Amino acid sequence: MIEEPVKPKEKDQSRLDEEVVKKLQAKFDEEERLERKKAEKEKRTNIALVEKWDDIHAKIDADHLLDERLQAQEQEELS
Fold first, then answer.
1. 0.70 cut: is pTM over it?
2. Integer Cα distance of 75 and 62 in angstroms
3. Any residues with CB less than 8 A from the CB of 16 and at least 6 apart, and which?
4. For residues 16 and 33, what is the distance between their CA atoms, to the nearest angstrom?
């Protein structure tokens, strides 16, 4: 004998639907939280790289100025 599938009652179906919605919302919230965390980490990394770049650029500028002063001093001593 073949049994017909039993359809859930409207109340039971509504409860099941609510559970599915809650699980999907929780999954969505977790994915959103992870994306925000990843974006914040990337932002901090970019800030650190910019700061490092600025430090290196400042050292290059300082070296260039020192080189110019030393060359000017040598020229003055030679003349």
1. no
2. 20
3. 8
4. 26
Q: Nearest-5° angle of CA 30, CA 35, CA 40?
A: 125
* 13-72 confidence digits (pLDDT tens): 888 889 999 999 999 999 999 999 999 999 999 999 999 999 999 999 999 999 999 999
**Alpha-carbon gap, residue 8 to 3, rounded angstroms:** 15
In this structure, are residues 64 and 71 in contact, taking their beta carbons and an 8 Å threshold? no
CA separation for the pair 40, 46 (Å, rounded) = 10
CA–CA gap between residue 18 and residue 36 (Å, rounded): 27
